[in-house]
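Spend some time on the protein that follows and explain the fold to me:
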Amino acid sequence: MALAPSRAGQLCVPAMTDAQSVAPEFRVAVIPVTPFQQNCSLVFHAKTKVGAVVDPGGDVALIREAIRKTGLTINKIIITHGHIDHAGGAAELKEVLGVPVIGPHKADKFLLESLPQSGARFGILTARVVEPDQWIAEGDEVEIGGHDFKAIEAPGHSPGSVVYYCEKARFALMGDVLFRGSVGRTDIPGGNHAQLLSSIREKVLPLGDDVVFLPGHGEASSIGNERLGNPFLQD
């Protein structure tokens, strides 16, 4: 499965290869939000039009418009980690939609509690503290858009970073753990470069080279592409 590039609110329709026969109804729409152009996404079932908002970092009006245009019913909000560009709009969106917030791991609680202060430093004045309805831990299963995703703790970029992996679709929501050609920053509070690389090598790469992932910023990639060409993963 490969994800085509998209602009705000446009469908980022998976171009299935081998996964077509097992997950033809799996869809992702990407909405770049905040000055950081973070990949907020709508992950949903093409037939039922039920899905989740993943990492609503801000620009809630833009996210709501994308939901309206796609005709979706949103039943939850998923957070990969607690940084402002991924979680800054979660409290407002939860209030508007009346749905639960799931994730990240509780180790990012300090980041969620400091969202207003973090937002102010970057001119994001609408950020509010958010208290998840469910903290996520290793091995937890979360239904997203009619598909089962498994939670993988992947600390390093932040202490509570979580990767959500759907085995059936061979797809992962990566947050800021791994990017096309790069890895998450660690020169920030709670960051640990050695721990991040360990998370990638021990938790992410073993998922398989055919697994496509949507990172928190930039274009989608596959684990195989990053194993071979990512300069941070070459020994």
